[in-house]
Structure formats: structure tokens, C-alpha cells
Amino acid sequence: DTGLYIVATPIGNLGDMGQRAIEVLAGADLIAAEDTRHSARLLQHFGVTTPAIPYHEHSGDRTPERIMQTLAEGGAVALISDAGTPLISDPGYRLVRDVQSAGYPVVAIPGPCAAIAALSACGLPTDRFRFEGFLPARAGPREQRLQCLVDESATLVFYEAPHRVLEVLGAMAAVFGEEREAVLVRELTKTFETLRRAPLAELEAFVASDANQQKGEIVLVIAGRDERDVTLDAATAKLLQRLAEEMP
Ligand code: SAM
């Protein structure tokens, strides 16, 4: 059926490819891929011969004519990214908006997503979580972002580059406190998959002591602020202290 299909693909292990994802990709008239060379391997592995074009989302880019043309002719277009679910720290948002504005349906074909996989196995509360994607690369803006999150009580989920993970854990320990629980989730679904949960300072020391922990693909999951930890403004704190002094 005509429309744009948002197709999730594996985040490492090809065995996680969904049956419906294969069918939709094979049946589509056009595949829009973040990186066509990268995706060629995946498509070949599953015997998909649908033509693929690159799709980026640099500012100023317009939705490729070929996508709109395919939809106008009643065809199906599938969007994939290099790994996992498109639009989750990946291109596709503008495309979805454009296609919907033009009156065509957009259909999700769900599957792997590193953030959700990490959450499901990390051992921190999952009833409320906040996906933050990638933090700013530079220290100043990064700290500002972390400061904005300091009172958030939902579990926090970040994607992080391996060469920055140590620095980021240090920055998080400084802002959220050394005792805040955190989980380093690496290489999900792959050979060297590891998961380690510890207070931030301890996790930082662990990563510092082992260069292997600074490699591969990484999700950081950080506990939200404990709602019982109330910080009081200075006047209230002083009043409470004086009251305490009066107590028998
Ligand atoms: N769209 C993808 C998804 O659904 O998870 C995420 C794309 S984002 C550009 C890539 C980042 O996702 C990596 O830097 C890493 O933080 C995380 N990631 C992707 N695959 C992963 C894996 N197998 N294990 C851990 N983290 C992964």
C-alpha cells in the first residue's frame, strides 16, 4: 500500500531483523537509507533488491523529489537508518512531517532500538524515563544540559560516543552526585555485550581502569533524582535547623 514505512533494523545482531521489516523492504518501490553503502550489506543479506537512495537531513535539504514522486504514483517508500529505529537520534523527522503534510500515510514497522533495549535490561526504574540522545560534545554546553536534568526524577537515557564516555561520567558525577546510580550498557546484541550498574563515581573509576570499556557503542542509563531527596531553599533550611535545635 502506498505510504512511508519507518522500518527498524538490527542494532548489531542480524538475527533481530523482523519478518515484517523484510517483507516491507522487499515489497517497497524505493528505500531511503541514511547510508546506502552501509545498508547495501543488510539488504543483500536478506535478499532485498529494492532500489535505495540516500536520505540525510542537513538543514536546507528538501525531501528528495524521487520520494514524493514514488508516493504520488501510489508507491511505497521505506525509510531505514544505519541501525535501529529511524528518527531515534537518526534522520527522518522532517520526512515524516513532509509526507504527512502531503496527505500520505506514515506507518511504523517497529523493531530494535538501543535505548529501549538498554532500559529493559539495566535494572533501573522504567515506569518513567526520559530519552536525551547525545549530549553536546563540548564541556560547557554539556554541563548546562546536565544542570537542566538535575531535578528530573524519571530515569535518564543517553547515547554516548566511546571516546567521550569517561569524561561524561566525570561530568555526570559532578552534577548529579557521585552516589547517583548509573548503568553502562555496551555493544548490545553483539559479541562483547556488557552491562554494569554502579554509583557514578564507581562506574567512572571502572571505565578509567579498563580501556576496553571505552570502546564500541554505548548507552548510559542514569537513575532519576530520588524524590525523597528534597533540597530546601536557604531560608527554609535555616528555619528547620533552628526548629531542630529547639526539639527536646
Ligand atoms: N536509531 C538508533 C536506535 O534506534 O537505537 C540509534 C542511532 S544513534 C546515531 C547511534 C547510537 O546508538 C550509538 O552511538 C550508541 O550510543 C547507540 N547504539 C546503537 N547501537 C548500539 C548497540 N548495539 N549497543 C549499544 N548502543 C548502541
From TrEMBL:
It is found in: Cytoplasm. Keywords: Cytoplasm, Methyltransferase, rRNA processing, S-adenosyl-L-methionine, Transferase. It comes from the Bacteria. One of its GO terms (molecular function) is rRNA (cytosine-2'-O-)-methyltransferase activity. Its EC number is 2.1.1.198. Signal peptide: none annotated. Pfam families: RsmI_C, TP_methylase. Residues 4-203 form the Tetrapyrrole methylase domain. It is an enzyme of class 2 (transferase). It catalyses: cytidine(1402) in 16S rRNA + S-adenosyl-L-methionine = 2'-O-methylcytidine(1402) in 16S rRNA + S-adenosyl-L-homocysteine + H(+). InterPro entries: 4pyrrol_Mease (IPR000878), 4pyrrol_Methylase_sf (IPR035996), 4pyrrole_Mease_sub1 (IPR014777), 4pyrrole_Mease_sub2 (IPR014776), rRNA_ssu_MeTfrase_I (IPR008189), RsmI_HTH (IPR053910), SAM_MeTrfase_RsmI_CS (IPR018063). GO terms for cellular component: cytoplasm. PROSITE patterns: RSMI (PS01296). Belongs to the methyltransferase superfamily. RsmI family. PANTHER family: RIBOSOMAL RNA SMALL SUBUNIT METHYLTRANSFERASE I. Catalyzes the 2'-O-methylation of the ribose of cytidine 1402 (C1402) in 16S rRNA. This is Ribosomal RNA small subunit methyltransferase I. The gene is rsmI.
